[in-house]
Please model this.
Amino acid sequence: MSTMQGFNYRQFMQEYWQKKPCVIKGFIPNFVDPLDEHDLAGLAQESEVDSRLISQQGANWQVTQGPIDDFEPLCKGAWILLVQGVDKYIDEVNMLTDQVSDIPHWRLEDVMVSFSNEGAGVGAHIDEYDVIIVQGKGRRRWQVGLPSHFNQLVTHPLLKQIDGFDAVIDQELAPGDAIYIPPKHPHNGVALTDCLNYSIGFRAPTDLELLAGIVDESEALAAKQTRYTDPDQLALRCAQAPASLVSNGELQALTQMLQRLLESEAGQQTIVQYLSRQALPELACDEEYTKRDTLSILTQSAVLIRAPGVRPIFKEKASDTFTFYIDGGAFVAPQEIAVLTQAFISEEATHLPLNLTKIQMSLMADLCTELLNAGYWYLENA
Model:
C-alpha cells in the first residue's frame, strides 16, 4: 500500500501523479470543515448549482438531479448528496486548492463536496480524471484497484458502476487525510459514519474535446484563417486516379493547413482561451466602478481579493502586451504594466496602496475597473 505522511509536492509528483494511487495521511493537519451538510443542502436547492442525490436500498439505486426542494422523501436507506463546483461559491472551500497550488490552474476542474450517511457511496466505478479526495468530518473506507478490464453494471441509467475489483489500497480516512486516485483506477468509497468529503478534481481534455473547444472559440481565429489552395496538387495526381479519391498528398496539405493555424500565435491563444473556461456562476459587483473610483481605491489602504473559483491563466509571453483569460474572456495589459499584471493575477489578495508611476496607475486603474465590474475581484477595506 502506498502512503505518504504529510503532503510533499515534489515527492507526490515524482512517485504518484498519474502513476499510482496513494493515501496521504495528514494532507491538511488539524482540518476543520469549512461548511456543514446544511450549507451543502442549501446549495443543492439552487438552480444554477450542479447537484445530485444518490440513494441505495438493497439492490435498488435511485438518482435525483438538483435542484432539490424536498430532501425528506429522497434520503432513504444509504444516501449521498454531491454538489459540484462548491469552490466557486464558498471561499473557504476554494482555499482547499491552495494545497495543490503548484499544479497549473487550467488542470484544475473544481471542488465537489459530498455528504454521506453511514453506508453510503456511489458504488465501485472508474473515472477518467485525477482526483484528490480530502476527508472531512467522519470516516470513510476507501478501496482502490489497478487499471484493467471490468464488467459494467447497469443499476441506474445515471450511474456508471463496475462489478468489483481487487484492491491494492484498503484504508479508512480520518479528518484531514486524503486519497489520490489517478485516471482509470477503479475505486469505491463507503461512509462508515456520517461524513463530508472534498474532491479536488483535475481535468485533461481529449484531443477531440480540445478540437471542439477550439472551434467554439474560433472568433479570435477568424482573421487568421486561410483557404485551401492546390496549384500543384492536381498536377501530381495520377491521371488514372478516380475523381472520388482524396490523395495522400491532398490529405497532407489539409493537415498542414490545420497545423499552421494551431501553431500560429492566434491559434495558441485560442487554445489557452478554451482552457480558461471554468463554468463560473454569474458574478456581480456590489456597485458599478468608474475609473475615477478605482484610481482612488488603488491609493487607499485596502485589499483587492480574487473571487472564489476565479483562476486566470495565460500563455508564455510572446508579445509586448500581456493577455490573460478568465472563463473564456480575454484581458489585455499594455507593456507598461505587463509584469505588474502577471504578479497581480497570480495572487489571491493584493494589499493596497500600490506604488506606481502615473502612467502605470492609470493603466492599472483601467484593468482593475474592468475586473471589479465583472465580479472577478472585489474590494475589502483594510
Notes: The first strand starts at residue 3 and ends at 5. The mean pLDDT is 93. The two ends are 48 Å apart (CA to CA). The longest helix spans residues 358-374.
